[in-house]
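Sequence in, structure out. Go.
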Amino acid sequence: MSSDKSRSKAMALVAAAGGVHSVAIAGDGKDQVVVVGEGVDSIKLTTDLRKKMGDAQLVEVGEDKKKEEKTKPDPVADAVAAYYNSQYYYHYPPPPPAVAVAYDPYSRPGSTCSIM
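Output:
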């Protein structure tokens, strides 16, 4: 890509592809296009660049090299979590199961007398 017009044409072509998040020009002679995205078909993208721009080569396909930054903990959220985690919760065991006993007040075990 020797001119600004061809660079902008290549960037527009790449940006129109599905799944592209960002496009940038790289290299010593500004002759490389860096594409970042998810689900980008690199073979189809290279083929489209060859059709529209002429010679195009696929140099590298890989993961994004950006490191995720760790977020600072929120002191208010930590204080709220510490408050709720410090509360006492009492868990009582369930009551014992009820046992039903049939009782006949007119009969006594071991007694043969029916008058009393």
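Check: Residues 103 and 109 are 11 Å apart (CA to CA). The chain has a mean pLDDT of 77.
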